[in-house]
Design a protein that fits this description.
elongated, RNA-binding, about 40% helix, 5-stranded mixed beta sheet, BirA Bifunctional Protein, domain 2, 8-stranded mixed beta sheet, 16 strands, alpha+beta, Rossmann fold
RNA sequence: GUGGAUGUAGCUCAGCUGGUUAGAGUGCUGGAUUGUGGUUCCAGAGGUCGCGGGUUCAAGUCCCGUCUUCCACCCCA
């Protein structure tokens, strides 16, 4: 027989049942919350025509997986869920009810060099609101993201908020040519990592003139100084400085509205921050931008998003405003694993029906059948091996209860239900067992 | 994409300056007089030392290449 060494492609992963318990736990919580906020599900294919994705991501475009298919079409694996959504809206305009609120939980692909918390295939959990100009939509997405993370047990995280047009205004204000605006954004985004002197050096290295550089640094230090200041105070400080730039005023208005809404929703102020240095890489953002940040495990952002005003317009003849936020499933899971945030009873199977001997096998199968009809997750042992082995199997699979039914039980039309944790075992009839297990696992039985 | 580290039984690792049949713990399989487990005891199976070349009388141990994982940069979920 020929042998192929089993192996995985770089950055790709298998999920064993132990992994899937955690993934499904997180997905089901997120999904039910999305629905609670009035979003409906959507999916798009793994592959798109390459030109659907081209020209949307800026620098990051080099990370798109590209192939030629057998029909010599240029195809690409989807890189995020936002651009496919834009395509979808462009295609089904007439069939979609506006405003269109959809959630989408699917894998995306990026050919990056893998690291911890960085894979080549990973799931994003996106919620987007299409067709709404109001900043209220952005505020609600931030609320939703915070709600989701808190429900998963996150304690220490923060949503950093900035505005794309503020970044370009900074470039304008400092007198830097438009072509270098992105370079500035990238540079000041590193403030956390390399500090103010690092940014100064970096700006110089990027060929920014001294005069411009100092103006930029002044602005940044303003926000850095104000770490204790409220977002409102910071906006008020910026307003006079950027007075002559009308786009900056619009951005400041947006943010002011956004922050006052968040405040009005009673979101604790430690949950969000105005961060003038936040610059999201993706090219399509045009308005407020957000990033969800955890400090504890050094993994960076676990989600992000923002308003994209022109992207959908690239797939239709008019512009449609939209805003969205994305949660990174595997980073959320990585953080939760690291901080031991998963409940320890993520068991999926409630009871194992053991097999005493061949003569009573059918009786055992009947018990299992009826437990299943009652909605209880029931596994069964198929071979009449030593009870020791059957119990060991239940332990290994973390099954909390075992039913044994031998000749004695069958004679009385009963069964023995054993609690694997306490070792306690009681003889009862099937109905009693169904009631007992049914009450215990009420919330899981569908 | 650039730079660095790593790779030995299913898992976690040991193996000194190259030298005979590659080890431990854990896990796995079987057993300790046959209706009850997670403890203990006994026995056993399991390794092309990531893969491919090369140097040497001799390589897990040195050199080159390649792949994987991890770290930094870049960037991001």
């Amino acid at each position: 027989m020929s042998y192929v060494k089993p192996r995985l492609l770089k950055g790709m992963r298998d999920f064993l049942p132990a992994d899937m318990r955690r993934r499904q736990y997180v997905i089901s919580k997120i999904k039910s919350l999305f629905r609670r906020y009035g979003f409906e599900a959507c999916e798009t294919p793994t592959m798109e025509y390459a030109d659907i994705l081209d020209g949307k991501y800026g620098e990051e475009e080099r990370l798109i997986y590209r192939f030629e298919d057998k029909g010599r079409r240029q195809v690409a694996l989807k890189y995020d869920l936002t651009v496919p959504l834009a395509r979808l809206v462009g295609m089904y305009q007439q069939e979609l009810t506006m405003p269109f609120k959809r959630y989408q939980i699917q894998p995306v692909f990026r050919s990056e060099k893998p690291q911890k918390g960085r894979y080549r295939e990973f799931y994003q959990c996106d919620v987007d609101i299409v067709g709404v100009n109001s900043i209220l939509a952005d505020a609600e997405l931030i609320l939703l993201a915070i709600d989701a993370l808190e429900r998963l047990g996150f304690k220490d995280f923060k949503v950093r908020i900035n505005h794309r047009r503020l970044l370009s205004a900074i470039a304008e204000y400092s007198g830097v040519p438009k072509s270098q605006a992105d370079a500035i954004a990238i540079s000041i985004d590193k403030l956390d990592k390399i500090g103010i002197d690092g940014v100064r050096k970096d700006l110089t290295a990027r060929g920014i003139e001294e005069k411009s550089r100092d103006k930029i640094i002044d602005l940044i230090t303003l926000t850095e100084r104000s770490e204790t200041a409220s977002p409102e105070d910071m906006l008020n400080q910026l307003r006079p400085i950027l007075k002559d730039f009308s786009s900056a005023q619009d951005a400041l208005d947006d943010l002011e509205y956004l922050f006052s809404t968040l405040k009005g929703l009673s979101i604790p102020s430690e949950r969000y921050d105005f961060d003038l240095t936040l610059a999201r890489g993706l090219g399509y953002y045009t308005g407020p931008i957000f990033e969800i940040y955890v400090a504890k495990p050094k993994i960076g952002s676990i989600g992000g998003g923002g308003r994209y005003g022109n992207l959908i317009g690239m797939f239709m003849r008019r512009n449609v405003p939209a805003t969205g936020i994305s949660l990174g499933l595997e980073r959320i899971i990585d953080v939760m694993s690291e901080l031991d945030m998963f409940p320890d009873n993520l068991d999926q199977i409630h009871v194992l029906v053991g097999l005493f001997n061949v003569e009573t096998a059918v009786y055992s199968l009947q018990i299992a059948k009826q437990l299943r009809e009652a909605g209880i997750f029931t596994d069964i042992y198929y071979q009449p091996v030593k009870l020791k082995k059957q119990f060991a199997y239940a332990n290994k699979k973390n099954i909390p209860y075992v039913v044994m039914a031998g000749p004695d039980e069958q004679k009385e039309n009963k069964l023995a239900l054993k609690d694997m944790k306490t070792g306690e075992q009681r003889r009862m009839d099937l109905q009693q067992a169904i009631i007992f297990l049914g009450e215990r696992y009420e919330n899981q039985i569908g």
